[in-house]
Each structure stands twice: as C-alpha cells, then as structure tokens.
Amino acid sequence: MAMRAGIEQLNGNVKILGGILSFPYFLSSIQYIRDSMLSMMWVFVNPLAENGIDDPMINPLIKKALRLEESGCLKMLVCLAEKDELRNMGIGYAKSLEKCGKLVEAVDIEGEDH
C-alpha cells in the first residue's frame, strides 16, 4: 500500500509519511534456489506468479517492481532478525530505499529467527 500511495492518490488526499516493515519476506532467484522450501511456499501461495520468485510481489528489487523512489513513504523502519534466512533481502531492500533518498532505520534483533 505504501508503495502504491506514492503513485496513486489515496481517498481524502491522505499522505503516508512512514512505514514499518517487520521481518520482510522477500525472495530472489539470485539468492534462493527455485526448489528451496521458501521458493516452493511462494509458488504454492501464488501459483499464477509469472516469474516464480522473481515476481514483483515477492521481490521488490527487480526491474518490473514499482520503483522505490516512487514510494509514498519518506521514512521506513525495517526490522530484521539475525538468524532469519530472509535477512539479506531485507538488508538489500533497506539499502535500496536509502539510495532513493528515503530515511531508513534498520533494527537487527540479535539471536532471533524469522
């Protein structure tokens, strides 16, 4: 919703100034094997995804995804877990937001998993 809010006008001209991304579930064929459990779960949940785990709904960093600089959020809090298998994608997302000029704070919870 926050991504689309930067592109589409919300009812009442509401503006979303910030958001919280708690333990993001992003996948990418670059980091995950297509036959991994995480990848298979995504295909089960969304069998119509054209490109499997390289679908913009699960991988916001691919070219087909909405452009991060168009996000309606100026600020983003990204919560990560040290032992989370998906942590690196969350870190990549946070860094990409920063490159687009967004204010990002990443909080990494030590010793925790997804």
From TrEMBL:
GO MF annotation terms: hydrolase activity
UniProt xrefs under InterPro entries: AB_hydrolase_3, AB_hydrolase_fold, Carboxylest/Gibb_receptor
The residues covered by the Alpha/beta hydrolase fold-3 domain are 34-114
Recorded hits in Pfam families, A to Z, give: Abhydrolase_3
The record's Gene3D superfamilies line, in alphabetical order, gives: alpha/beta hydrolase (3.40.50.1820)
Give the UniProt family note: Belongs to the 'GDXG' lipolytic enzyme family.
Q: What is this protein called?
A: Alpha/beta hydrolase fold-3 domain-containing protein
Q: Which organism is it from?
A: Capsicum annuum
